[in-house]
Every structure is written in structure tokens, then in C-alpha cells.
Amino acid sequence: MTTASFRDCAAWRAEGLPLSTSSNEACKLYDAILTQYVKWRNEETLGGIEGCMAAVQAADPDFVMGHVISTGLQLVGTGSSVLRDQMLSSAVRKTVDLASCQELTAREKQHVKAIDLFSKGALGKACDVWEDILVEHPTDMLALKFSHDSFFYLGEQTQMRDSVARVLPHWKPHMPLYSYLKGLYSFGLLETRFYDQAERVAKEGLALTPEDAWCVHSVAHVYEMTAEIEKGLKFMASTEKDWMVCDMLACHNYWHWALYHIEKGEYEAALSIFDEQLYHRCRNSGAMLDTVDVCSLLYRLEMEGVSVKERYRELLPITDPHSEDHTLLFNDLHFLMVSLGCKETGVTQRLLESLRELTKEPEENHQFQLASTIGLPMCQAMVEYDEGNYSKTVELLKPLRYRFMQIGGSDAQRDIFNQLLIHAAMKSQDKHHQRFARCLLIERDAARQNSPLTDRLIQRAHSLHI
């Protein structure tokens, strides 16, 4: 693949999304980066996203939107922190400085503003700017994707759904990347519990583009949340050949596959997916989505009574370098799973103390603002659980259970904290906590009927508390 098929200056202008550069090659490379981002796929023939980022700077070093998309993707990836990564910090400054000394469109200026806000941790304010762009330019896919991902980090599920719903009528089937809107909309639908509609929209997307890994991912979520485990296993196996090439999302889709096996109590099958797919993909990519997935899978297995200590040891070199990044509380909680699993108290303390320090003066940073009321208590609950202080774990998590979504992620990802609360309540010596565990299980059974995992937990609660 070459950049020949991508949009040049005139094509972007014709779509009402002009780019401030005279370089056709820079415009095409911007499109190539955007396309790979939307498809969750690095095209090797283009040099992947990183290759295109280097090429767009070479084609026009002063092309502001080239800097916006390159720097924005590094920020949205949450793999490095402007607090600790000087190159990323200076890339943000360079983007802002370039914008201040050029004639740009109002839309481009807003993109720069949003990236600057995101870099300061003001994710909500960044979303406001992207949404303002979409009011005037509903076919600006970069604004839509950055907004979608940021709403996800904020746990703002309704906003994530409505952001896509608002722009859908403005898109036409002939437009580049049109079919990928189906996956974005489907994901918002499922996170707001419209499971039937989410499945239908995702399958419309797959009918148009079978290799749309985000649509596959959306269907995988539907079967997870409705406990249709056999359907999920069959679906993942039948579509694997299409989505496994989407290297940026394949690991996450394999994680969903492994969750079905945990749900059924098939721990060896889940571990096989960890060993054959998740660990290698995570180690090779270093991507945060892959990293939190491998942490989460081991923690879930450990709660189920499976010994995974050696695998935790393999993950520590991947998670430890990020212990003080603090880009997202969601990430911090997952790194903590590994340091606790390895009994590395030094790493655990470093993570917690550096986070506590940042909460003292949070400024605009949304994550630091939330840390004292949600992030740190959730971290402490995990520490208490690890030390066998189950009553304390319940006391910390119980008041927060309806606020877990504020740490971001999906319902399926955050379910690990619901499970942690149930396990802690079952193991607590406090009779009230034990009764509370049964209440939680009744509630879970009502929301997700015919779940083998819930049935197992109910049986365990009865055997513990007879």
C-alpha cells in the first residue's frame, strides 16, 4: 500500500475539512495515520502509524494537524506521561507554538486547544472542544475518535453514545471510513445497556467491513454482558481470521475470548490464550490496552483460586516502568494488581506514594482530582484484600460501588472490581458483610442471568456461610 489512495489537499478541502499545508504528501500521510487509528491496524507497507508520523513531519515540518494527530495519539495512548516524558511534553509545546504563529482555520485551532487540554489532564474540557468541532464539522473523524476515546477514559458512557448519534446523519456511505461509525455507535449503545441494538448495529458494520475489529469487540461485549457464553465463543472463533490482523485491538479481542472461558470455569483454556496470545502481544506492543488486559486476566484467575504468580513475575518488567506515570487511575489499579501479585511491596508503595503526592495539587488534572476520593481508596482496598483484611476491603469499596465507572473503562473491564467486592464480602468474618455478599450475588444474577460464574460464586457463598 502507498499513500496514493489517500486524500490530498484538494480532497480535504472538498469535504469541508481543509488542512493548512501546501503539501499533498503531508495531507495524505495525515489521512493514512487517521485511517490506521480508526481501523486499529498498523499497515506495514506504510511503515505503520509510527512510520507515517515520522514521514508527515518530513513532508511538512510545520504542518500543525500533522503534529496534532501525532502528539494526540501519543497522549490518548496513555503509555507515557507529560510529567515524566520530556519528548512528549515538548511535542505538545511545539504543537501549541506552531499554531500560534500560523494562519489556521478555526477548526484546526480548536484541535490544538483540545490536545493542550488533554495533555494537562483536563479530559472533560478537551471533549467539550472536540464536541464543539463536531457541531460545525460532523464529519471530522479525528475529533470524533479523540472524543470517543476520552469519554471512555472518563467513564462517560451516555456521552460516548450520543457523540456518535449526533453526527451519523451527516455521514454518507461513499465517505472514507463510513462503516467504522457503526462500531463506534454500537459500543456506546452497549455501554448504555442497549444490548440488542448494539449487536444489530455492530453486525451491520461487519456486513460492510468484516475486518472491523471494533465491531467484533462490540459484539464480544454484548455476549459477555448478557452471559451468552457459547454464542461468544462461537463468534470469536468464526471471526478470528478477520480481526487478528488488527494488531492494535487483537490482544483485547483475545482477552474477551479468555473471559468467556473464565466465566465457564475453564481456567486452562484462559491460561492458554494468555500464554499464546496476550502475553506476547503485550510484550511486543507495550500498548496500555494490552497491558491492562493481561493484568486483569491474571487477577481474575487469581480470585478464582488459580495460581498465577510466575506469570505476574513476567509482567512486572512491563508494568513497573509505568508505576509513576499516573496518566489514568484505571491504569494505576491494573499495575497494582501485578506488584501485589509479585509481593513487590516497594513497587506498590512507590505507586501509591507518588499518586498521593500528585493529589495534593491536582490543578486541572481530572484523574488527580478523583484520586483522593476514588482512586486511592480503590488501590487501598486491593492492598487490604492482598493482606487478608477482607472486612476493610468491603468498607473501602462498598461506598464506591456505584462510582466505579468514574475511573473509566468499560462495564466488562470494571467488573473486576465488582468481583473483588463480592469475594471480599464472602471472605469477611463480619456476618453483615457475608449477608451483603449474598445480596450482591442476587443482584448480579438478576442483571446477568444464567452466568456460570455467578452460579459458582453463589455456591461458594453457601458453602462458606453454612
From TrEMBL:
Q: Which InterPro entries match?
A: TPR-like_helical_dom_sf, TTC38
Keyword Repeat listed? The answer is yes
Keywords noted in UniProt: Repeat, TPR repeat
Q: Which domain of life is it from?
A: Eukaryota
Instruction: Indicate yes or no for the key word Amino-acid biosynthesis.
Output: no
Q: Which family does it belong to?
A: Belongs to the TTC38 family.
Q: What is the protein named?
A: Tetratricopeptide repeat protein 38
Q: Which organism is it from?
A: Silurus meridionalis
